[in-house]
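Translate sequence into structure tokens.
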Amino acid sequence: MITIANLLEVDKSFSRHLPTKILALEVSFSADQMRPETAQRLWSIVNYCQTPTFAELQRILSSSNLPKSLSEVDKLLFATAVHLKRGVVTADKHLAKEVSKRNLNAIDIASILRGLVQSGQLRARYVESLIRQLAGRMDYILGRPDPTWEDLKKHTFP
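Result follows.
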């Protein structure tokens, strides 16, 4: 969600490439996850999804062998994705692998940007400019401070 907020700050017109409403967990917007001003900017494009009941959450998590490194929010995201049978957009490769094991899609923002170029919706130079501007905001979607289009073409996830 923070990367989406950063993309919209870099270029407000990028919103035309986003769904009208993005499903998200309410806990992702808590003060320990993102700054209040960032949460406020995203409020109009987000619908909070229903998380599983406590019993369902316990059932899903106990039947999964999630990595210990997964944050509590990502565990809740995993359980919600499984419960709702929905894919996720995440930068966490461990989460993506676990979601994929449940035959659900998992993708990251970098792969989405590359796909927009490959489908002809965006130009490579424009996307390279976006990923460089994100890196300038310390949002390293490719894991490096000096990303190029060539780096994005080689990017794999998870």
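Note: The chain is about 50% helix and 5% strand.
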